[in-house]
């Protein structure tokens, strides 16, 4: 896997028979599908796309040119992380990531829906801070408080139980990025461990889930990308390794 993001004029890499996910390295929605593929130990190829200068062929896989898109047969694809992830869980049922109980599956979807206000606040804080309103900070913390209450109510290590599941992999990419906000001068978005003790424990547990650990990025890395995007020149190819864990990024050798 290369961290290079292909762009307009670049040739589509040859298809080699594996599932192929079109993504963007810093996209939380694409990360959701990467985590599910990792969790299920499915062999796949990963192709990163420059979303500002999209290669012409991405529209053959995703009509709007959005990521993620999953090529399941040569030239045939589905798109949207929620659609992809449910498909993967049903197509490869050996390690189910969704609850078997229909009510619990519905409750998991409600958790994700209730968390959407925190996600929206994050995007404004990270990429359009001049439009930030006090109610957005409130919505952010309301989302965190709701998630912590759900963890307390369920009384399990992960929302899915003893092991991380689809609801955890759906929420995690945003929690991962939330940690970068204080580094961007948004201290009001800090996840204070004294206030969010259970949630902080959950975040640390998620960092060590193998599917997450092999792909997630450090807060400093997310902050650096966010700054480049906010300036109008996103540095898609800033990484010099194929995966950077949720630790401090390695320094380049002098």
From TrEMBL:
Key words, A-Z: Oxidoreductase, Transferase
Pfam families reported in the protein's UniProt record: GST_C_2, GST_N_2
Domain GST N-terminal: 17-96
Record Gene3D superfamilies: 1.20.1050.10, Glutaredoxin
Taxonomic superkingdom: Eukaryota
EC annotation from Swiss-Prot or TrEMBL: 2.5.1.18
GO MF terms held by the record: glutathione dehydrogenase (ascorbate) activity; glutathione transferase activity
Positions of the GST C-terminal domain: 101-234
GO cellular component: cytoplasm
One Gene Ontology term from the biological process aspect of the record: glutathione metabolic process
Top EC class of this enzyme: transferase
Family, similarity comment: Belongs to the GST superfamily. Omega family.
PANTHER family in the record: GLUTATHIONE S-TRANSFERASE OMEGA, PTHR43968
Protein name, UniProt field: Glutathione S-transferase omega 1
Organism name: Heortia vitessoides
């Amino acid at each position: 896997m290369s961290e290079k993001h292909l762009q307009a004029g670049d040739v589509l890499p040859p298809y080699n028979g594996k599932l192929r996910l079109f993504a963007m390295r810093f996209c939380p929605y694409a990360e959701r599908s990467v985590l599910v593929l990792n969790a299920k130990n499915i062999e796949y190829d990963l192709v990163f796309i420059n979303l500002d200068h999209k290669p012409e062929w991405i529209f053959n896989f995703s009509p709007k040119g959005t990521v993620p898109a999953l090529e399941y047969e040569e030239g045939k694809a589905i798109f949207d992380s929620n659609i992809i992830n449910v498909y993967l869980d049903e197509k490869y049922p050996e390690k189910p990531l969704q609850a078997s109980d229909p009510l619990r599956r519905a409750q998991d979807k409600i958790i994700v829906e209730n968390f959407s206000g925190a996600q929206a606040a994050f995007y404004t804080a990270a990429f359009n801070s001049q439009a930030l309103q006090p109610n957005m900070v409130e919505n952010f913390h309301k989302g965190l408080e709701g998630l912590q209450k759900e963890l307390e109510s369920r009384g399990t290590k992960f929302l899915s139980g003893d092991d991380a599941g689809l609801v955890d992999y759906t929420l995690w990419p945003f929690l991962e990025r939330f940690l970068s906000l204080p580094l961007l001068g948004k201290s009001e978005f800090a996840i204070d461990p004294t206030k969010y003790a259970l949630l902080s424990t959950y975040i640390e547990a998620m960092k060590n889930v193998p599917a997450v650990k092999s792909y997630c990025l450090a807060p400093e890395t997310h902050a650096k990308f966010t700054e480049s995007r906010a300036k109008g020149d996103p540095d898609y190819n800033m990484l010099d390794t194929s995966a950077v864990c949720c630790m401090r990024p390695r320094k380049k050798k002098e």
